[in-house]
Amino acid sequence: MFTVEPIACLRDNYAYWLTCGRTGVTAVVDPSEVDPVLASAKGREPALVLCTHHHLDHVGGVPGLTAKFPRMKVIASSYDNGRIDGQTDSVSDGDRFSVGDVTVEVMLVPGHTLGAIAFVARAGERTAVFTGDTMFLAGCGRLFEGTPADMHRSLQRIVSLPADTQIYCGHEYTADNLRFAAMLEPSNEAIARAVARTSDLRARGLPTVPHSVAEEREINPFVRPQSADLRKNLGLGLGSSDVDVIGAAREAKNSFR
Ligand code: ZN
Ligand code: FE
């Protein structure tokens, strides 16, 4: 048993508290800044910080938290060694560690950056994944360092997790992503339902995280390269590869307003 609490940071970032329900051991994922983390701590002291990638809007709070909690471990991709101020531990694909009773497995998911990792948290029947800027709800991150092929492989790994896996991503971009998804698949009813639920949540100031893997498989254009509508609206036919579709969708999203 574990809990995940989003911490709203900066303009639209999410850091998270990942807390073991039995032991109370807790980790902070992607602390963009210090103050919102401390303000939501309720007496918790993070034993670990988990960094999905080296961008400052995900690790900017690390030095400040380390100053406050000197015994805290800061876990990040071996690829990002030297790119993250305060990193103490380097991890690679398949590595595991624990947060109390929660087992966390590292999944290398290049695309947004080459060292990007997702953290898969498991305890009992429950699975959650922290995807940083690789996968957003109904979208994916920009390709700063990787290729469409990298991103395709990474997203497919994430959506190969169990269908009820909860996805916690690095930014609140869901409403914008769904506008783009609806343009590409106008008759997709799961997208229409997600649009309605998202605007309701946002109107009440609530986060849209998490979605399940099952839901993302229905609505996220970047994990649906086989969709005929999607291909048609990107100007691609059935002869194009899945990677071509992901690349074209990412290009179209870059200029979508
Ligand atoms: Zn980033
Ligand atoms: Fe980011």
Outline of the structure:
The protein has a 6-stranded mixed beta sheet, with no helix packed on it.
Offer a few descriptive terms.
257 residues, alpha/beta, Metallo-beta-lactamase, Chain A, 6-stranded mixed beta sheet, 9 helices, globular, binds zinc ion, binds fe (iii) ion
Q: Mind sketching the topology for me?
A:
Layout: E1 2-9, E2 13-20, E3 26-29, H1 35-39, E4 48-50, H2 56-59, H3 62-68, E5 73-77, E6 89-91, E7 96-99, E8 102-108, E9 117-123, E10 126-132, E11 135-136, E12 139-140, H4 148-158, E13 166-169, H5 174-184, H6 189-203, E14 211-212, H7 213-219, H8 228-233, H9 242-254
Parallel strand pairs: 3-4, 4-5, 5-6, 10-13
Antiparallel strand pairs: 1-2, 2-3, 7-8, 8-9, 9-10, 11-12, 13-14
The protein binds zinc ion and fe (iii) ion.
Residues 55, 57-58, 133, 170-171 line the site of fe (iii) ion.
